């Protein structure tokens, strides 16, 4: 832990002086040579995130990508309207295309034939100023890491079921993501899928086994569905689709429990912490390609802001910003414990209903 903290500190100190040099002395397609300071930062990145490369040519290519990503992070930092910080992340040696192919999934297109649609009738009801299900014991399970398996849809659905099970029964449970991958209704395992595929699989299999009994492998095992082998530890009655109305979504979140949502993940490649308030150029609401669990909402305090590394002028003021709290599936070395993001009108918001005959308080 001490080493990780030290590395983050060193990276932060070095990056402040590097980003202006990168954007000023190298064009987007210029492949080097790079200054010694950048190579030292890249070395620290390799140590922190356990990166190694097959040959000098691949090292040089990844160093160039790393430098360009630092410049992109700096641009996001200057354009962001919230309090987010951008910089080195576990994905800083990946191109935008590689990041999308590895961690995104299919673009949501239409909705399933099963599942009820919920209308906006709750939009006018009063809401609390904040909601954070992380503060309730046994509701939000630990952060998972999907790795190179494009299963965010399955992890978001599993986290949703775990949360509602905890709310309903006051009992903590972790369900099997691997069962959703091996026994998928119409998803394609680690090649991507939709959250509603996961819910339909749970309905068809009358529940899910525990993560302990049926652990995550990080790959799909064809014709190896073991759903009948293990005892079911959680199940659902049905699922619903919420309308694209943020007041309705907030009401369901505050009164019923966490909800799965699908977002634009592109700018999150460089996100480190804070409230991310996107601009239309940095977060296109028409492109949604990553599923996460919505676990709360709130409003940031007015802050002085952060001085730009490329400007000696006074810091930009950071106004109060309403935000959603998201639980991601990229491991606990990315972002905060969960992300806070302000990017309106995602798609594919779904949520399971609790077991039949039980009401969620």
From TrEMBL:
Q: Which residues form the signal peptide?
A: 1-27
Q: Mainly localized where?
A: endoplasmic reticulum
What the entry lists under InterPro entries is as follows:
Papain-like_cys_pep_sf (IPR038765), Pept_his_AS (IPR025660), Peptidase_C1A (IPR013128), Peptidase_C1A_C (IPR000668), Peptidase_C1A_papain-like (IPR039417), Prot_inhib_I29 (IPR013201), Tyr_Pase_AS (IPR016130)
- Every copy of the Cathepsin propeptide inhibitor domain together lies at 42-99
The record's GO molecular-function terms, alphabetically, read: cysteine-type peptidase activity
The listed locations are: Endoplasmic reticulum
Q: Where is the Peptidase C1A papain C-terminal domain?
A: 127-353
Q: Which UniProt keywords apply?
A: Disulfide bond, Endoplasmic reticulum, Glycoprotein, Hydrolase, Protease, Signal, Thiol protease, Zymogen
Q: Does the keyword Membrane apply?
A: no
The Gene Ontology CC terms held by the record are: endoplasmic reticulum
Biological processes per GO annotation: proteolysis
Any Pfam family from its record, for instance, is: Inhibitor_I29
Question: What's the stated role of this polypeptide?
Answer: May have a specific function in the mechanism or regulation of T-cell cytolytic activity.
Give the protein family. Answer: Belongs to the peptidase C1 family.
What is the protein's name according to its record? Answer: Cathepsin W
Q: State the species of origin.
A: Marmota monax (Woodchuck)
